[in-house]
Amino acid sequence: MKAPSVILDARHREREVPVPAPPVPLTVEPLDDHALGLAFASGDESALREAYSRWSALVHTLALRSLASNADAEDVTQQVFVNAWRRRSSFDPTKAPLPAWLVGITRNAIKDLLERNARDRRDAEAVGASLGREPEPETASLADRLTVVDEIAKLGEPQGTIVRLAFFQDLTHDEISRRLDLPLGTVKSHIRRSLARLRDRLEVDHVAA
């Protein structure tokens, strides 16, 4: 009969599990642009992540040069890759490399944003004039101001507060975003829609006058 200490040692050895050696890391070669384009067109989400890693800086630089606004450039950069992924079925990697296709989408996104900003400026000027920021006949100015104030009250929240901060306190979009703790894109969207609504109301009232 074995001594208890020997039995314990034997049991301990039976419980021991050999520790495997750490795996040897495999070296994976990155895809070239053509292979990445094929993967992107096929719907491989890892290809989208890789495309963003490779070319988001290029897209941002192109947008920043045209828009002169880092916030707008960031918005365009995000929108370009969202649009590209949604339209991936229309991308043919045999006709154009993926970075060139992304640059084309970037140019269209920049053009659209410039046009939208121009419309926003026209709307802001129309509403600003109605609030008395430009000389005009006293009666018309008063009527327009009352119309604008009335329409702002109908906007609801947070649209009404955003418009009042923009026009009555002259806060920038960034300042409004920080004060109300709202995403910058949300603030811009509310202002854009609100200005269009106010402009349309003013135009209707002027035609009816």
Strand-pairing-aware structural class: mainly alpha
Number of domains: 2
Here the CATH topology of the largest domain equals Rna Polymerase Sigma Factor, Chain: A
Tell me the β content. under 5%
How many beta-strand elements? 0
**Considering DSSP H and I runs of 4 or more, what fraction of the residues is helical?**
over 70%
Overall average pLDDT: 75
Q: From the 3D coordinates, which CATH architecture of the largest domain would you assign?
A: Orthogonal Bundle
Molecular shape: elongated
Largest sheet: none
Instruction: Return the string of H and E elements.
Output: HHHHHHHHH
Distance between the ends? 115 Å
Q: Compute the CA-based radius of gyration.
A: 30 Å
CATH C-level of the largest domain: Mainly Alpha
Question: What does the secondary structure layout of this molecule look like, with pairings?
Answer:
Layout: H1 4-15, H2 33-41, H3 45-67, H4 70-86, H5 98-130, H6 138-154, H7 159-167, H8 173-180, H9 184-208
What do these coordinates show?
This protein has 209 residues and is mainly α. It folds into 2 domains: 33-116, Rna Polymerase Sigma Factor, Chain: A (Orthogonal Bundle); 131-208, Arc Repressor Mutant, subunit A, CATH 1.10.10.10. The protein is built from 9 helices and no strands. The protein is elongated, with a radius of gyration of 30 Å. Mean pLDDT is 75; it is low at 1-8, 10-14 and 133-144.
List keywords for this structure.
9 helices; 2 domains; Arc Repressor Mutant, subunit A; single chain; 209 residues; mainly alpha
